[in-house]
Amino acid sequence: MNKVAALVLAAGKGTRMKSRLPKVLHKVGGKAMVERVLDTVNAVGVDRSVVIVGFGGEEVRAYLGDRCEYVTQAEQKGTGHAVREAKPVLGDFDGTIVLMCGDTPLVTEDTIKALLNEHTTTGAAATVLTAHMENPTGYGRIIRDEEGKVLRIVEQKDGTPDELAVQEINTGMYAFDSQKLWPCLAQLSDDNAQGELYITDVVGILVNAGERVSAYMTMDEDESLGVNSRVQLAEAERILRNRKLRELMDAGVTIIDPATTYVAPEVVVGSDTILHPGTILEGNTVIGKECEIGPHTRFTNVTVGDNNVIHFTYAHDCEIKNGTDIGPYVHLRPNTVIGDKVHIGNFVEVKNSIVGEGTKFPHLSYIGDSDVGGGVNIGCGTITVNYDGKIKHRTRIDDGAFVGCNTNLVAPVHVGSYSYIGAGSTITKDVPDKALAVGRARQMIKENWVTDDTFKKK
């Protein structure tokens, strides 16, 4: 295959979004739309990726970083004008330019590969990605001759009644022979209903010049959805989510209620895992086999092993190993690693901590910046006091330690292996192995402190 460059249109404001944010930075499935398009073309294996920015261009550049090259379209005068602005960057590129829209996050890698294959096989100067749509209102129509050859593309505002009756629509995605594209762009005219330079007019120019224009029709019209409003954004989100849920169910994952389960496209879930209603799996989350997740559990960038039961839990940027029992109402924060067979009960928060095998945090505890060994029991109400106002210190609790209820461990502090801490203690000094530590204030009793006068005052 010839070299391929991707050119992504991302300059529009998207006025119907009614947003300060550039349209292409609105997220679908947890990623900005333009990022999803870039991911797709990069998965195809393009040699170069160029994004045309305009409204909010600095924000788009900041979001995408060095993943691509950039062209600025200072004035938005149509799609043809946008592509023409890329000539200083791609004018010397010899190969195929695949033109993408930054607001079409549903197009797939397989479809772009098929488009490029059609383009190469037919030796066309241009190949249009099309779709059949029952209600094509708003889309450009593909006009063919009696033999089925592509003649031109007619925009909605410029079409005749017969042309607008056509149900084969232009998705706005194309493959162009780079050397034949640039001369056509110089011939574009803004003599149309919108007073803009249309990239669609390149098709007619090529046909009139005797060049071949091909078309590849995707069988999934959803791929053509361009997001121009919040309603369409929600629709794209629904379609992407349903694709992923179907993929997971086909691979052996049980999803109790797909209507209330949200899984990002990049998430991996092992077979025989059950996802209960209200489960949200985001980012680069990986769930192992034979887990039971949810209800009402949210994971963002979490790695989970096998045979875990986790419900009513929020976890992000952390790891949970195998055979754990977690929830309800648990918060696992970044840089936490929960070892095998750990039990974490209700109302527990763990942050930046390593927890060893078989340890138990039954309820109502905060464990932060800690290294906790295996077989440790943390009593109800235990707090690691990790912050002195300037620095966060670590707490170390060795294997087999038993920490009584309502204990404060004032870091930095080390609790030795198989040691015991009495309930209600505040521990400020290291506890040796197998020792008993009690750090309570002395109890005082004043008998007959309450008198009849005490009640009269109330």
TrEMBL record:
Cofactor: Mg(2+)
Catalytic activity: alpha-D-glucosamine 1-phosphate + acetyl-CoA = N-acetyl-alpha-D-glucosamine 1-phosphate + CoA + H(+); N-acetyl-alpha-D-glucosamine 1-phosphate + UTP + H(+) = UDP-N-acetyl-alpha-D-glucosamine + diphosphate
Protein name as it appears in the record: Bifunctional protein GlmU
EC number(s) from the headed UniProt entry: 2.7.7.23, 2.3.1.157
Function: Catalyzes the last two sequential reactions in the de novo biosynthetic pathway for UDP-N-acetylglucosamine (UDP-GlcNAc). The C-terminal domain catalyzes the transfer of acetyl group from acetyl coenzyme A to glucosamine-1-phosphate (GlcN-1-P) to produce N-acetylglucosamine-1-phosphate (GlcNAc-1-P), which is converted into UDP-GlcNAc by the transfer of uridine 5-monophosphate (from uridine 5-triphosphate), a reaction catalyzed by the N-terminal domain.
Family: In the N-terminal section; belongs to the N-acetylglucosamine-1-phosphate uridyltransferase family. In the C-terminal section; belongs to the transferase hexapeptide repeat family.
Biological classification of the source: Bacteria, Bacillati, Bacillota, Negativicutes, Veillonellales
Region feature Linker, mapped onto this chain: 231-251
Pyrophosphorylase: annotated span: 1-230
Residues that coordinate or bind UDP-N-acetyl-alpha-D-glucosamine: 9-12, 23, 73, 78-79, 140, 155, 170, 228, 333, 351, 366, 377
Broad class of where this protein is predominantly found: cytoplasm
SUPFAM superfamilies: Nucleotide-diphospho-sugar transferases (SSF53448), Trimeric LpxA-like enzymes (SSF51161)
Keywords, comma-separated and alphabetical: Acyltransferase, Cell shape, Cell wall biogenesis/degradation, Cytoplasm, Magnesium, Metal-binding, Multifunctional enzyme, Nucleotidyltransferase, Peptidoglycan synthesis, Repeat, Transferase
UniProt-annotated binding residues for acetyl-CoA: N386, Y387, A423, R440
